[in-house]
């Protein structure tokens, strides 16, 4: 089902299902022979959600059956696991560097099933604001509470659609825009129209005091290339077809959730607005963390750039 301006979702449908896919990949990465990350809560979320396309990532039996039907699935699944492990390691490291510098306000936009509030060693006095759809945050909180997990920082949930006036909701929840903050927009930007992307970063900028930090993974050069989009869609359709034969659940067409529109380069925009910026393509980032993209899977994932930035003084 294509996106609409006012669509919403729970954790097993539409954009919510992508959070389960990420959690399943994190679970598989955590349980692999050579783990790059440790996310003990990822498996908890996947088990609580039941079967779906995400099950192929984290259920070895289903994966084996899927590979038997469609051999190319093996490479695609491993790439997804490595991709998510690398992305997770990048954001983990970014957050810890920010709080090591003294920042104590953390804002996770489109928090999904990210469990950093529970699993990272936050310093005393850290406040983490998690923003996402109400049903997504409800599922997350309920699942972790039933598992007996306790946040490692002071958690403030801000249940809101990021297309609404989330800056007002964030301030009302206690956020202090006069103090530095560390922001993440992980796995978010490509699910926003180009105009909404611009508004997102304008709002972050307006709420960021000097010394604030920001990280995001954003569409890179070639994101709208028709040939790349066609190959990515064909690849994903094979995954969906295999999943549909194996799981007794609706299989979301993730390609319908993105907005393949020409966009403002985020790294350039931040530099023009007084941020010191570092940027790396995803192949560069994967190499940094000891992972790689197989030659026959170079076009399987959209071109992505990981951006990290700090707002300058003056």
Automatic annotation (TrEMBL):
Q: Any keyword Transferase?
A: yes
Matching entries from InterPro entries are given as: Ppm1/Ppm2/Tcmp, SAM-dependent_MTases_sf, SAM_mthyl_Trfase_ML2640-like
Question: What is its EC class?
Answer: transferase
Instruction: Output the Pfam families linked to this UniProt entry.
Output: LCM (PF04072)
EC id = 2.1.1.-
The entry lists its GO molecular-function terms as: methyltransferase activity
Mind listing the GO biological process terms from this record? methylation
Q: Which UniProt keywords apply?
A: Methyltransferase, S-adenosyl-L-methionine, Transferase
Family according to the record: Belongs to the UPF0677 family.
What is the documented function of this protein? Answer: Exhibits S-adenosyl-L-methionine-dependent methyltransferase activity.
Q: What is this protein called?
A: S-adenosyl-L-methionine-dependent methyltransferase
The organism encoding this protein is: Candidatus Mycolicibacterium alkanivorans
> Top-down, what is the taxonomic lineage of the species of origin?
Bacteria, Bacillati, Actinomycetota, Actinomycetes, Mycobacteriales
């Amino acid at each position: 089902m294509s996106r609409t301006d006012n669509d919403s979702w729970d954790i097993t449908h539409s954009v919510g299902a992508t959070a389960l896919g990420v959690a399943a990949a994190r679970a598989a990465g955590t349980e692999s022979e050579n783990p790059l990350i440790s996310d003990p809560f990822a498996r908890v979320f996947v088990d609580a959600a039941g079967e779906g396309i995400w099950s192929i990532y984290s259920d070895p039996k289903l994966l084996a059956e899927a590979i038997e039907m469609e051999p190319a699935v093996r490479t695609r699944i491993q790439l997804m696991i490595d991709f998510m492990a690398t992305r997770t390691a990048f954001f983990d490291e970014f957050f810890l560097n920010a709080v090591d510098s003294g920042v104590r306000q953390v804002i996770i936009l489109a928090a999904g099933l990210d469990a950093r509030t529970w699993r990272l060693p936050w310093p005393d006095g850290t406040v983490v604001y998690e923003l996402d759809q109400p049903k997504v945050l409800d599922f997350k909180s309920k699942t972790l509470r039933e598992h007996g997990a306790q946040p490692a920082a002071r958690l403030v949930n801000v249940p809101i659609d990021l297309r609404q006036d989330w800056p007002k909701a964030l301030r009302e929840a206690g956020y202090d825009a006069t103090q530095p903050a560390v922001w993440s927009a992980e796995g978010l930007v490509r699910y926003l129209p180009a105009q909404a992307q611009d508004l997102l970063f304008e709002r972050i900028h307006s709420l960021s005091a000097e010394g604030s930090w920001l990280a995001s993974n954003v569409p890179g050069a070639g994101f709208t290339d028709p040939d790349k989009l066609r190959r990515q869609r064909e690849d994903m359709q094979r995954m969906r077809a295999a999943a549909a034969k194996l799981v007794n659940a609706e299989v979301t067409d993730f390609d319908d959730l993105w907005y393949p529109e020409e966009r403002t380069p985020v790294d350039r925009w931040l530099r023009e607005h007084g941020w010191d910026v570092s940027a790396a393509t995803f192949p560069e980032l994967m190499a940094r963390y000891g992972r790689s993209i197989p030659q026959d899977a170079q076009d399987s994932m959209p071109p992505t750039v990981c951006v990290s930035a700090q707002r300058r003084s003056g």
